[in-house]
Amino acid sequence: MKQYPSIPKSTLFGIDVIVFDKLDGSNIRSEWNKKKGFYKFGSRKQLIDEKHFLGKSIEIIGSYQEAFSAWAATKKIEQATCYFEFYGPNSFAGDHDKGDDHVCSLLDVDIYKQGFLAPGDLVKAFQGILPMPTVLYTGSLTKEIVEQIENGTFPGMSLEGVVCKAPAFKKWAAPVMFKIKSRKWLEAVVAKHGKDTAALLDKL
Description:
Elements: E1 16-21, E2 26-33, E3 37-42, H1 56-62, H2 65-75, E4 79-87, E5 103-111, E6 115-116, H3 119-126, E7 135-140, H4 143-151, E8 161-166, E9 176-181, H5 183-193, H6 198-203
Antiparallel strand pairs: 1-7, 1-8, 2-3, 2-4, 4-5, 5-6, 8-9
């Protein structure tokens, strides 16, 4: 099952992007096909089952099966890998409170032999149907917008920051993506985990 692409931190100017709120959780991937529905699950780097500390995501994603299968039928899709963010109200930097009501928000869909849905197509297909990160802005970034995001003052954003997406530059590639983090969130990670957080921040 294909891993979700690592999202770089290099901000791109001069292209139109969709700016999504950056949800503070853990990446979950699930393989879907026409016969089995969602039948295989993994964290970013390993397969998981219900006993895993992220295993709660399996039941949540399973509840999306009818809606996703209905969409896939309209597009004559028979196999896809879906990527979600698993999080709750107290999730922070990969840690989760077991007592929370968690959500799995859809990040991307990679269709077998077709590639990733373009960001705009993803929003049109699933916004209001499955949980998704909030769209905060569409258009070209400016230095002022980036500064607002880094300062945590951009309208609608949560603590961590944003993910910006644009259609892939070439066929079969993942969408163009980059992330911008807020200084307040980065400071909170350092406060919790100490100064030696380079490896952790790279994963997040």
